[in-house]
Write a structure and sequence with these properties.
With about 290 residues, this protein is an alpha+beta fold. The protein has one domain: (Glycosyl)asparaginase (Glutamine Phosphoribosylpyrophosphate, subunit 1, domain 1), CATH 3.60.20.30. The chain contains eight helices and twelve strands. The strands form two sheets. The chain has an eight-stranded mixed beta sheet. It is globular and about 45 Å long.
Length: about 290
């Protein structure tokens, strides 16, 4: 039997502003899609490709996640991440994690090395250290604050940035992963949708979704899981489900976007914000990368 089409999408956040040049990010995202395509062609699983791609987004320092994150109101970097394997239903996440280079690798360890789904704060940090994950020696030298020139909302509102990836591999497995530094100047201890399975990240046999935007609104709508449930229970298409969920978020006054794909490899990348950095490998093998 011939292999089925591979497909994937990634995002670098829905905080893009037309006043800023994203040439480097667009080029970088396209390169990551090419690398992910090659891994899938070699037979890597959807989950492994999701994780590897998000790690590269985190360490690049180009996006408001991982190395590119911005500090909270107390000057501390608290990072969130989660992932979900649609084939098995397994998931893992970390919230308000301090001191580690790759939150998504910590989330993977939560999934594979514990009976839990989510670890937070000091407990998450102790666990990440026990797993030998790379620690940040000097935050002042490590973090690039990629969003410092991306003032995508007025002061005191929920300016944001996130990265994520969704993948369908050649065996039809779906997976999703998301990582973020959270909203800019957030209150210490604030956790958004990114590490919450069903809110910012979700994958099952029907769809894989990674969200980006004002997380408080995505949490109120269980945005990621709602897309999949609309498809599974209401028979909506991927485009219908993603559009409906974002319409609800916009109706509440929120903004952002998401990337999603379905079991057939169809991809959707809608947003209700000024822009969203994103790149796609569609089921026909075409690669696109854009910010608006």
């Amino acid at each position: 039997m011939p292999k089925s089409p591979i497909a994937l999408a990634l995002h670098g956040g829905a905080g893009a502003r037309r006043s800023r040049d994203y040439t480097n990010e667009i080029r970088h995202m396209a390169g990551l899609v090419e690398a992910a395509r090659d891994r899938l062609a070699r037979g890597d699983t959807a989950l492994d490709v999701c994780i590897a791609t998000v790690v590269e987004l985190e360490v690049s320092g180009l996006y408001v996640a991982g190395r590119g994150a911005s500090p909270n109101a107390a000057g501390v970097y608290e990072l969130d991440a989660s992932l979900m394997d649609g084939a098995s239903g397994r998931a893992g996440g970390v919230a308000a994690l301090e001191g580690f280079e790759s939150p998504i690798l910590a989330a993977r360890a939560v999934m594979t090395e514990t009976p839990h789904v989510l670890l937070a704060g000091a407990g998450a940090a102790r666990f990440a250290r026990s797993q030998g994950l790379a620690e940040i020696a000097d935050p002042a030298a490590w973090f690039t604050r990629a969003g410092k020139g991306e003032a995508n909302h007025p002061p005191g509102t929920l300016a944001h940035g996130t990265v994520g990836c969704v993948v369908r591999d050649a065996d039809g497995r779906l997976a999703a992963a998301t990582s973020t530094g959270g909203v800019f100047n957030k209150l210490p201890g604030r956790v958004g949708d990114t590490p919450i399975i069903g809110a910012g990240t979700f994958a099952d046999a029907h769809a894989a979704i990674s969200c980006t935007g004002q997380g408080e609104y995505f949490m109120r709508n269980l945005a990621a899981a709602q897309v999949a449930m609309r498809m599974r229970l209401a028979g909506e298409t991927l485009d219908q489900a993603t559009a409906a969920v974002l319409a609800e978020i916009a109706g509440l006054g929120g903004d952002g976007g998401l990337i999603a794909l379905d079991a057939d490899g169809n991809v959707a990348t809608p947003f209700v914000s000024e822009g969203m950095k994103r790149a796609v490998l569609d089921r026909d093998g075409q690669i696109t990368s854009a910010a608006f």
